[in-house]
Amino acid sequence: MKSKINILIAGGDMRQIFCAEKLADIYNVKVVGIDREFSGTDFPDGECDCIVLPVPPLDENGNINTPCSDDIISPDMLKNIMKKDCIIFTGRYDKRLNELFPYNRIIDYMSREDLSLKNAVPTAEGAVQIALDELPVTLSGLSVLIVGMGRIGTALAEILKGFGADITVAVHNAKGAGKARVIGIKSVCTKDMDTDYGLVFNTAPELVFDRELLRKFSDDTLFIDLASRPGGFDFDSAAELGKKVIWALGIPGKTAPVTAGEIVAETIINILSEGGD
Amino acid sequence: MKSKINILIAGGDMRQIFCAEKLADIYNVKVVGIDREFSGTDFPDGECDCIVLPVPPLDENGNINTPCSDDIISPDMLKNIMKKDCIIFTGRYDKRLNELFPYNRIIDYMSREDLSLKNAVPTAEGAVQIALDELPVTLSGLSVLIVGMGRIGTALAEILKGFGADITVAVHNAKGAGKARVIGIKSVCTKDMDTDYGLVFNTAPELVFDRELLRKFSDDTLFIDLASRPGGFDFDSAAELGKKVIWALGIPGKTAPVTAGEIVAETIINILSEGGD
Amino acid sequence: MKSKINILIAGGDMRQIFCAEKLADIYNVKVVGIDREFSGTDFPDGECDCIVLPVPPLDENGNINTPCSDDIISPDMLKNIMKKDCIIFTGRYDKRLNELFPYNRIIDYMSREDLSLKNAVPTAEGAVQIALDELPVTLSGLSVLIVGMGRIGTALAEILKGFGADITVAVHNAKGAGKARVIGIKSVCTKDMDTDYGLVFNTAPELVFDRELLRKFSDDTLFIDLASRPGGFDFDSAAELGKKVIWALGIPGKTAPVTAGEIVAETIINILSEGGD
Amino acid sequence: MKSKINILIAGGDMRQIFCAEKLADIYNVKVVGIDREFSGTDFPDGECDCIVLPVPPLDENGNINTPCSDDIISPDMLKNIMKKDCIIFTGRYDKRLNELFPYNRIIDYMSREDLSLKNAVPTAEGAVQIALDELPVTLSGLSVLIVGMGRIGTALAEILKGFGADITVAVHNAKGAGKARVIGIKSVCTKDMDTDYGLVFNTAPELVFDRELLRKFSDDTLFIDLASRPGGFDFDSAAELGKKVIWALGIPGKTAPVTAGEIVAETIINILSEGGD
User: Fold this and answer.
1) D85 φ/ψ sector (left φ>0, alpha ψ -120 to 50, else beta)
2) What ipTM did this prediction achieve?
3) Looking at residue B198, what DSSP letter applies?
4) Nearest to D175 among C114, C181, C266 (CB)
5) pTM of this prediction?
6) Which of A41, C193, D186, D263 has a beta carbon 3.0–4.6 Å from A28's, enabling a disulfide?
7) Nearest CB to C270; choose among D174, D179, D266
């Protein structure tokens, strides 16, 4: 027996369809603004308990972001569907939402720690996929540097262990070194790091690879930046020096949309079962 | 060339000797209150920059804790050796120290996060050693439950992966589940956990295994508790029910004293290079 | 100082260039029939000690196989370059070679066990790359079946462990089950295998997946066949049933040409240092 | 419903009891010569289809080896129990058996490859247990050498990976190097090996560590020899030089008797289901 909660998925990419499918196991779910077949459960206007908006939620015109549909969905259309105390789940903070829906609870599911942890896995897998696609050598035996020992750095290290790569983690402090040791990886202090690596993943959200540092690496080294804007590289210098840097953003939705959608759904389920954030 | 910092190691077990050896690579180090040969560097009274006390620092008489010596070292003896601004490193908070040395900086190295992280490794190795010693079956293919996904739980999971154990982690919430996923381990919510495990490690510092829960496990299950006092078990019920529970405390110092001592030394080096805590 | 052995690399793809580069570290190496710059060492006609032919060695006209050049290299041209006792290394047995060079030693480097073992690694990495490219879900937590516990099956299992996949190996007999246990993987007898896997790798060189068996799998299952001709699948039935089967042949040369070339070079070095096969 | 095969377990240690328990799941099993309670199924004299003898099968008087009982079991007593075509399973070849039972099929289960493969796992776990018991440092980060890349070397490498040890395998030839690469471990040729290892496992059944080689290692290095007689060490020189060498024989039965017994049982089941060897 399904819960009586009515959820509307509005806009977004394939990830939101897979999110809808997972949510539909326990709630009444309807989808708008994605041109894909979805056999949800209808519910009347004014009866919607939760709306799930995509990443990012709004386009430049202030309408719902609908990259997979030509439909235009305005905030007003959502207001017709919503219950008075409808919860709005958004895939990123956007102050326009607060202005549009001043009386509703707005929850940014992308800022939840459980989602970030889970997303580290598809992100790391996607990053390794890029490395496999780009490199003419095997990861086995390759000297690999991971900058940062957070969620994504940890997930990367686990995967690369299986490949038999020779992994070093660059960390800022003794705590980072301790985290590396816990998962059995050797570490080096970022400021003392060597440069003889065939593959470098950056996960640190700050400028690490400036012109001077980049210059010391071989032209064969592949750099993959997983940090969000502004990224960890002096990209202009990298281009001038002929270094190969790939800035991989938004991996989970691109390379593992089913898993990424399920993670969003699980997070929403967790939030609702906790009684909201 | 050695730094001019003079350090006195006062009391403690073998761990402190190995700590002294490591510190002696860069500082002038002297040892008192451990009956073991140590070829340190002498320095005059009144010239000591740092004193390193053991875990715990004081005995019930208020003297330095010297389990490996019959020497009695009183706090007053230390005062003679100390510089005025001598830093006191202690292996656990003890308010008597604050009374004895009111004008000195007292730093509890055991409470440092980098030390806790690093100590997770010898603790996990020691716990696995106990399991190997006690179990008449291989860890390979064994169904193992780890309660808690903190430092020690993570270190245990990494080691047990290598053995080919079938590992499940019991966690409290979505964040714990996310951490398990990052290192590729399946998780279950503590309150929903099954009981058909051949080996259970508890790392959660709270009563998890009460009488009712213990009753559901097989008598063949081996339980190893790594939580500090009061531990995660109703030990009386466990004894009455004939369950095999081993409460393993203070592992790093017992099973890997060299590594444990080096970790203390590294922590002190880090603190001094940071200019104190 | 280089050895005085003179080696000619004749024809082939990029792999042969990387092979040439590695061999050039210790021998005099010249390349013909690949339109790529290569700064080798010249040697006079009639002074060639070894010729390295590609995979396969000859085209349908009986000339050297030169997929990366429009040059035509006839066996007679090679005869001019060869010393009388020149060793011919070939990338596959071809009886025409025996007829063309009846008095020379002909060694098939592709049939060497050390090469097969080493090639298992780039093959497994390439297979995992295909899986990452094709699947909309993460390998983490995915139920994966590997058919066969030989070199490639073992290399696959090692890599997939790092991803946190739930791996089962299908084996024919108790020996296969034992090999799986040695590397900590659970096994099942091929004839009793379940069919609820999201990803299946076949490494067994025989028909395993016939119509009846394929029918039992979900349409979402991705099958990757790594067996050489005739492959492990009833491909016609798979197509009719709408099953997704990718037959991945010649992976090492395609996805990791540098490593693949180095492996050929190492094998030739080993053979020469052993004094020939 | 049980099979009608009647099996007698005669003599041996605890391993044989656990073997009996596993066999009793599918056959009628009776135990003699082990003073341990076992609730088997009785069958009349002259009706025994198989006899399982221990490792080794006979004592110096030619009676069945009964280390866990004061009972004396003579071969003649077994003859009374046996069917005419009774199969005799023995835990090692002993030519006296062929003289005693010239008309019976005698199968040495210890020489079966599936048993050897499976026994590699408890052997490797037991070896790691010894290392944990003996070493004052963690395996994490320790430089470990494994000599030999067979079953036991492979199983050791897998376990030590989980500990985050820095593993090198010493191999004789290119094939060994290939096998190491398949499981993601670096290798070195035995004759070129370094000597700066904290822990060395030998699995090669030949003299590797002679006086000259041993001399080059640190006195802190722990050596564990897993090779059967005559072992891989010049033990006299090792003792004279003060090197710490542990010769660990018969591990599976000692450290994991349940698993070791089950492996014997599985092997017997496999042999019977194949219709004998």
Assistant:
1) alpha
2) 0.93
3) S
4) C114
5) 0.94
6) A41
7) D174
